[in-house]
Inverse folding.
């Protein structure tokens, strides 16, 4: 068990490590996070450790991807606990830059990805994916990573990052890691900490409803009917509002009505103070396989 995670806060210090590794021909993986680490994040670190010689975990609560000041202020910040949680997984560096390092006063650039950023969470969180694309581009440039690891839990985000990396010819490979769940199906999320005990009991209803949509699609039912039923089911379970439940083609995120190739069923809904998101795959019968 390693407990020697080096914490760096400046680009110069980070580059010092990375330059040495690259000189020695070592591959570099990066796992971007906003902290409040749980087993979902740690699965990304494990995947990175398996794949790369060196692993950087980044910790930065990115103000540009919060569209509400109260949400940003309330976001959990637990750096010391995060460092302890990471230790057994042995990343080489925890890169936790300051706000001033990431966005100095003069900062004036926004990366905006069309197509896959539109609809779903993009429609409900204006500016969110611009904030994500901008910070992830900076983290790629700063870390010079060869491989970057992202969770399928944030499926639209993963597709936005794939599109952006390809469009901008950034020399980094993007790896998606399946969603880590509680035993009752609830996707692990830093935002689950906002749930009361009663809400925690209700929360798995989101995943159950999405799985039911996926099953219906495989049986040949139309997406519009299945998603309308799912929204009713999620509301009936005790969620206070449903932002969306939709069926999209897995790679392009184009809306689809019938299952032809690989699809994703995606949903977002409000439970008390928490906005929960989740998604599950749907494969036509002949091509069945995988889980998300
Ligand atoms: P966050 O700290 O919420 O920005 O998440 C950092 C990374 O962890 C993102 O790539 C997320 O998709 C990923 N992640 C969050 N929750 C999970 C989960 N339950 N399973 C797998 N990956 C996750």
């Amino acid at each position: 068990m390693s407990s020697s995670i080096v914490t760096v806060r400046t680009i110069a210090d980070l580059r010092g490590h990375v330059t040495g590794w690259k000189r020695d021909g070592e591959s570099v993986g990066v796992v971007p996070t906003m902290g409040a680490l749980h087993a979902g994040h740690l699965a990304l670190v494990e995947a990175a450790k398996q794949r790369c010689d060196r692993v950087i975990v980044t910790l930065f609560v990115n103000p540009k991807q919060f569209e509400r000041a109260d949400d940003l202020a309330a976001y959990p910040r637990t750096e010391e606990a995060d460092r302890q949680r990471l230790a057994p997984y042995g990343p080489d560096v925890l890169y936790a830059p300051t706000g001033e390092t990431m966005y100095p006063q003069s900062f004036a650039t926004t990366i905006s990805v069309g197509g896959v950023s539109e609809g779903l969470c993009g429609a409900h969180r204006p500016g969110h994916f611009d904030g994500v694309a901008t910070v992830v581009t900076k983290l790629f440039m700063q870390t010079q990573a060869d491989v970057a690891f992202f969770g399928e839990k944030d499926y639209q985000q993963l597709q936005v990052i794939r599109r952006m990396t390809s469009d901008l010819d950034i020399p980094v490979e993007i790896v998606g890691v399946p969603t880590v769940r509680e035993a009752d199906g609830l996707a692990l999320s830093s935002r689950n900490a906002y749930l009361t005990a009663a809400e925690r009991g209700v929360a798995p209803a989101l995943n159950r409803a999405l799985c039911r949509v996926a099953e219906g699609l495989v049986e040949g039912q139309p997406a519009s009917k299945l998603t309308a039923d799912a929204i009713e089911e999620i509301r009936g379970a005790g969620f206070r509002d449903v932002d969306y439940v939709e069926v999209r083609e897995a790679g392009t995120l184009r809306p689809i009505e019938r299952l032809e190739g690989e699809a994703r069923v995606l949903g977002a809904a409000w439970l008390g103070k928490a906005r929960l998101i989740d998604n599950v795959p749907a494969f036509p019968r002949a091509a069945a396989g995988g889980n998300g």
About this structure: The first strand starts at residue 6 and ends at 8.
